Amino acid sequence: MDSIYGEHRPKMEQSLNEVLDHISSIRFDLKNKNGMDPVEHCLYRIKAEDSMREKCRRNHLPENEDSALLRLHDAIGVRVVCAFLSDVYAIRDGLRALPDITVTDEKDYITRAKPNGYRSYHMIIKTRQGYFVEIQLRTVSMDTWASLEHHMKYKKALSGNVELFSSELKRCADELASTDVSMQAIRDLIFEDNR
User: Fold this and answer.
1) Beta bridge partners of 105
2) How far is the C-alpha of 12 from the C-alpha of 15, rounded, in Å?
3) How many domains does the chain have?
4) What is the mean pLDDT of each successive set of 10 residues along the chain, which is 195 residues long?
5) Cα angle vertex 81, ends 91, 112, to 5°?
6) Predicted local distance difference test score (pLDDT) of residue 109
């Protein structure tokens, strides 16, 4: 079976590396400005062939490179996990300011969380080579919640009271969001004190 990405894989990897280099530069600038690295860790990938084919089927699209690279926008993915809320938006602003990328879509699930409690800032950017990259920006708390929710909800069959399960997950997400706000306030006070 031919690759769903056709002959694009090497250029996709080059685009991914360029985006990662941009993020590293933004991190470096913010570290010099604020005295600390805004990023706890960064994960990235090119979506596996079988996952992309499955997503095409789920979206009723042909399993070809046009669907994978032009109609769906997450063949290349980057997740940037930050310590504080302000870091998420600082990284976002740095990405927006880059001259050789175009932001094609943004969704702020931090200020407007999904009904289940999921929070993250999503961006779709288009690189100078023409490839779309989905970037997720979130705090450590948001990332922890999303990882645990994924393991509990999708790795095991749900049984019992689904409504209770959902409301407890939402409660935990809200508590973690409150903690993010509190930690940001403490950080802001520390920065004000040290000026």
Assistant:
1) 124
2) 5
3) 1
4) 92 97 97 93 97 97 96 97 96 96 97 94 97 98 88 60 79 91 89 68
5) 75
6) 97
The residues that bridge with 136 in the sheet, in sequence order, are 79, 122
Q: What tokens does 30 get?
A: 């913010």
CA dihedral 182, 184, 190, 193 (to 10 degrees): -100
CATH number at residue 9: 3.30.460.10
What pLDDT is attached to residue 155? Answer: 46
**Tokens, residue 141:** 């708390």
* DSSP code at position 69: I
Question: Do residues 108 and 92 make contact, with C-beta atoms less than 8 angstroms apart?
Answer: no
Report field, pTM of the whole predicted structure over 0.70: yes
Tokens describing residue 130: 């023409």
Q: Which of 89, 112, 102, 105 is CA-nearest to residue 184?
A: 89
CB atoms within 10 A of CB 53: 18
Tokens of 145: 């919640």
Q: For residue 157, give its domain range.
A: 1-195
